[in-house]
Amino acid sequence: MVTLSIESNNKVNEEVLGVKVGEAVAHIIAAASIVESIDGEIDDVKETVRRYVDAWISEMVPIKYIPGTAEIIGGKIKRRITEIFDEISEKELGETLEAVSDFKKSLDSGEVTYNYDEIEVRIERVLRSLGIDINVFSGILDVSDITERFSRLISIFTLTVGIASVWDKKWIAESQ
After folding, report:
1. How many CB atoms neighbour CB 52 within 10 A?
2. Are residues 26 and 97 in contact, defined by beta-carbon separation less than 8 angstroms?
3. Residues 123 and 157 sit within 8 Å (Cβ to Cβ)
4. Which helix (H) or strand (E) holds 15?
5. Which residues pair with 15 in a beta bridge?
6. How many angstroms separate the CA atoms of 37 and 18, rounded?
7. Mean residue pLDDT across the chain
8. 19 three-state secondary structure
9. What confidence tens digit (pLDDT) does each residue in 46-81 have?
């Protein structure tokens, strides 16, 4: 089992036992997906997914939160993060988590070297697998500065992954 170590400043080590955090998170989510398909939802498994997703999120902070974004995500999401593997592979999820993390670091340092279009397509594919159409965020993403646009897109993605790791179908029934 791969374990992640959290440093005192709440940043996750970028690589543990040769596995990057995004890849490790994807492995855990995929394993949890298999367990859920066999045994149903188990609290310990859900908690493990949440902890690993939290570790990935800690790599992403700080993010730019736009008020109302979490409510939009919560209202549009249709699936838990463990239910997406019929649309994207574990490998693609891991690569996407890593690519977004690397892209965020390059944005923060002012040295963007990544292909903007590739990042947007990767994010859109994960959002779509969770039941979210990226167009619902058009008002938030409609800014002229491309760096600001991608900062907001990364925020949306990070929040979505976090919410999808704890989201429960029962919430919809309870809210109606």
Report:
1. 23
2. yes
3. yes
4. strand 15-16
5. 20
6. 29
7. 85
8. strand
9. 999 999 999 999 999 999 899 999 999 999 999 999
9 CB-near residues (< 8 Å, 6+ apart): none
Token reading at 122: 């990767």
**Contact status, residue 29 vs residue 56, Cβ threshold 8 Å:** no
120's CB contacts (< 8 A; 6+ apart) are: 150, 153
How far apart CA 129 and CA 108 sit, in angstroms, is 27
Q: 157 vs 17, 31, 74, 77, 170, CA distance in Å?
A: 26, 22, 13, 12, 23
Confidence of residue 170 (pLDDT cuts 50, 70, 90): low
What percent of the chain has pLDDT above 90?
A: 70
Q: If we measure between CA atoms, which residue out of 171, 132, 157 comes closest to residue 66?
A: 157
Given the structure tokens 């919560």, which residue do they identify? 74
CA 124 – CA 134 distance, rounded (Å): 6
Distances (CA, A) of 41 to 37, 81, 82, 143: 8, 13, 10, 40
For the chain, the domains span: 15-175
Distance separating alpha carbons of residues 22 and 101, to the nearest angstrom: 8
Summarize pLDDT for 106-150 with one digit per residue, the tens: 999 888 776 888 999 999 999 999 999 999 999 999 999 988 999
pTM of the predicted structure, to 2 decimals: 0.85
